[in-house]
Amino acid sequence: MGFFLVCMSSFLLISVSLYVFQLLDDRRRRMPPGPIPLPIIGNLLDVARELPHRSLARLARCHGPLMTVRLGTLVTIVASSPSTAREVLQTHNCSLTGRSPPDAWLALGHAANSVFILPPGQRWRTLRRIGTEHLLSARQLDGKRLRPLLRGAVLDLVRRVSELAAVAAPVEVGHAAFAAVMDLQWRAMFSAGLDGAAARVLQEASRESVKLSLKPNVSDFFPAFATADLQGMRRRFARVVAVVYRLIDEQIDRRMLDRRGAAGGCSPARVEKDLLDVMLDMSERGKDDGAVTVNRDVIRTFLTDIFLATVDTISTTIEWAMAELLQHPDSMRKLQEELRRVLGSKADVEHSDIDRLPYLRAVIMETLRLHPVVPLVPNEAEETVEIMGHAVPKGCTVLVNLWAVHRDAGAWPEPDRFTPERFLLRLQEAGFLGTTEFQFIPFSAGRRVCLGLQLATRMVHAMLGSLLHRFEWTLPQEVKENGIDMSENLGLTMVMATPLQAIANSA
């Protein structure tokens, strides 16, 4: 018993001493102010009261737009205003673009080849270039191979909604959009569709992967305990991402057989190469520009990242936009009048129509302002820098709270109100790459700007516009009585905690 008391006393003495030293060291290094951390757990209780982007915004109102919080053993600097976001994402962007993988992503070695996690070196640049040049650039998306696929995805979504409307069944908006975009992205990467069973399996695995990706995890806050995987996050992520890997492996194996057949004259060679063809070409050469050895692990990790990020981003934005419009019937009416006036008898919205639909663009911008798909952008300081007189030390996590930036009262009058009209006079200034003053940066900015921006902007406009042009929308009676649940869940993206259901009737 005496030995136990001595050990506990020593532990407490060491903990208190480290705690005091930590506070003094923070002051000596001139780090940004922040809430006083508790021993061992730091500010986890402050942040755990609600979702992290909301908790951090609340704390920033007390401690300033650049603040320090300690999440377990992690030192985190949080930028919560347009000016501090500009410092992180523009002024010091070359020094603040590192990434530490979430512990869950270590499963199956996923983080080792992830374009979202790799440090910003030649390997990372090469993988981003592959994705941009061969799938996600405007030139590719508007080209003769992908443009019909984008159009087909819009028609697929309309078909799904029409089938439910015909039997007066509620439409789960995000689910329908996710399924349509999932099929689009699969065809874009592999030039092949999914049968019904594979589509259901992939959709379930994809949505679960997204939920687990950035969920708060003890292993991230206390790396010493990571091997125990106390919340089972790494095991769960491994299980669901393995399903996506298996389906991608099937495509790789099938394509390699086709290529061998084409080389032997047994089957025709492909005329237009898709992203899988491009990566297999690199694999056969062994290297790409001496930077990346493209093997099966690299191919399936890269394709999984691109697939999960683009599919969830688009469907989530459509769901949030529809939820806001159903709560603001005047905005929905204005948008539908614009669609009727501009499109006339034309059934669906296409990319070429977007410039003639300013209110549609304003609605989507306002949706992304209030509901940024990725509310917290995490980077890591690769060297110590100074921001606004404060030190941001090497190795610390640097979070840009886009949710707080987009609700900054100094930049946005009545920041919590859904008011698309605020964007009508600033459509050119506030493009989807963000404003020059960083009040609106829905796809982040700087070197790690979202890879799928071009695809997302095309598909969100075309899909949302077509849904509102083709159908009249109302809420189920129970939702009318209780109101739409606008609460959030946070994973890889910020989704509605309660999936939106609405009734569609042909317009």
From TrEMBL:
Cite the Pfam families for this sequence: p450
Q: Which cofactor does it need?
A: heme
Which InterPro entries does the UniProt entry name for this protein? Answer: Cyt_P450, Cyt_P450_CS, Cyt_P450_E_grp-I, Cyt_P450_sf
User: Superkingdom of this entry's organism?
Assistant: Eukaryota
- What are the recorded Gene Ontology BP terms? defense response; diterpene phytoalexin biosynthetic process
Which Gene Ontology MF annotations are present?
Answer: heme binding; iron ion binding; oxidoreductase activity, acting on paired donors, with incorporation or reduction of molecular oxygen, NAD(P)H as one donor, and incorporation of one atom of oxygen
Which keywords annotate this record? Answer: Heme, Iron, Metal-binding, Monooxygenase, Oxidoreductase, Plant defense, Signal
Residues where heme binds: 450
On whether rRNA-binding is a keyword of this UniProt record, the answer is no
Q: Where is the signal peptide?
A: 1-18
UniProt family annotation: Belongs to the cytochrome P450 family.
Protein name as catalogued: Cytochrome P450
Top-level taxonomy: Eukaryota, Viridiplantae, Streptophyta, Embryophyta, Tracheophyta
